[in-house]
Amino acid sequence: MSIEFSEHARIQLKRRGISDKLTLKAVQEPDDVTSSFRGRKLRRVRVGDKILEVVTKTDGSRITVITAYYLEESL
Length: 75
Known about the structure:
- By secondary structure, the chain is an alpha+beta fold.
- It has one domain: RelE-like (YaeB-like fold), CATH 3.30.2310.20.
- The chain has 2 helices and 5 strands.
- Strands 1-5-4-3-2 form a 5-stranded mixed β-sheet.
- The protein is globular, with a radius of gyration of 11 Å.
């Protein structure tokens, strides 16, 4: 499995103060995965009292991180 970051994701992660390491954890070991539009997946992992949601797109064995952001709601 290959994981890549889109340019949009790089910009948003930096702006939101979310580390690549934490993003990769959410992709590789999510607490929850939900399908989204255009075949995308929403992968979530709990981080303290928040939830990190990472939007990904899968193409074969390649996963591309589209964006990531924190939710304040519980799973």
